[in-house]
Design goal:
Length: 289
């Protein structure tokens, strides 16, 4: 305690010099940024989407109802397929050979490149008239290649595949790092007990990676619920809004249609799923699992 603070306490009033010398000046910028970047946007968004009429309009809108199904499919298929394949690929890249390291460097390129040009390149490759994919299929003898961007099934599958292609390297790297933290003594002991091949994966690797896997799935689900780029830049939400998800539909209503309140309402309808996921994730992280 400084002399000025002691003098202020003796006079019965706080010392501003002692106050300013403490940690408070360092906390104030964080409080201000939290208010400006977190509290105010959240409260303002809740205010914009509070009107019940917005939700009555949404729940009677076939496009919104389709976006609910698309969002569930996009998140469910995209996250689970991506995570399972990433877990398997992490075992392949864990092989201590020079060629596996070289392949890993190439494998990480889709995650390293910017998302927008990556998804746009996929969009143009899937063009039905002059796209690279259909040109290649015709050269291989396929007389009637798929109409990727004007078919709901093919378009949605292309968007999900593009999303998996983009984020698979990142989660493979996460699981690879988790694998390398497992002591080799554990595998040596398992080999002595007769565990080989798939039995090592089932009884050793996966139980030790389970907590990392579950936490990664929760985090990826939260991120994927707000994913905008994969749908917008691959299919544009088409054909006829059939591949819209919450993120793209909310942006469309807010900026293209000009109904900001309705666009915010679309995003808020994801809160009953998003908030429990965040709470569950925080609880797992707090427990260190």
């Amino acid at each position: 305690m400084t002399a000025s603070t002691v003098a202020g306490l003796r006079r019965g009033r706080p010392s501003w010099s002692g106050f300013l010398a403490g940690p408070v000046p360092f906390v104030i910028p964080y409080v201000v940024m939290f208010f400006l970047l977190v509290l105010y946007p959240v409260c303002y968004g809740l205010y914009l989407g509070h009107a019940p009429g917005n939700y009555r309009a949404l729940f009677s809108n076939p496009t919104y109802l389709r976006s609910v199904i698309n969002t569930v499919l996009f998140v469910g298929i995209g996250v689970n397929v991506k995570m399972f394949v990433a877990l398997l690929l992490s075992g392949f890249f864990a092989i201590p050979r020079w060629w596996s390291k070289a392949l890993l460097a190439v494998f990480l390129l889709p995650w390293a490149i910017p998302a927008v040009p990556g998804f746009l390149s996929i969009h143009f490759m899937l063009d039905g008239q002059w796209g690279f994919i259909n040109a290649l299929l015709k050269a291989l003898g396929v007389a009637h290649p798929p109409v990727w961007l004007i078919s709901y099934g093919w378009g949605f599958a292309a968007a999900v595949s593009a999303y998996i292609w983009k984020w698979l390297p990142f989660w493979t790297l996460i699981f690879l790092a988790a694998r390398t933290s497992i002591s080799g003594d554990v595998y040596e002991a398992a080999s002595v007990d007769g565990a080989v091949g798939i039995r090592k994966f089932i009884h050793i690797t996966f139980p030790l990676l389970r907590n990392v896997y579950v936490t990664s799935v929760l985090l990826s689900t939260i991120w994927t619920l707000g994913n905008y780029n994969a749908i917008f830049f691959v299919t544009g939400g088409g054909p006829i809004d059939s591949t819209q998800v919450f993120a793209t539909l909310g942006i469309k209503y807010a900026f293209q249609v000009g109904d900001v309140n309705l666009g915010v309402a679309v995003a808020l309808t994801a809160l009953p799923v998003l908030v429990p996921l965040i709470v569950l994730l925080v609880r797992r992280l707090r427990r260190g699992q």
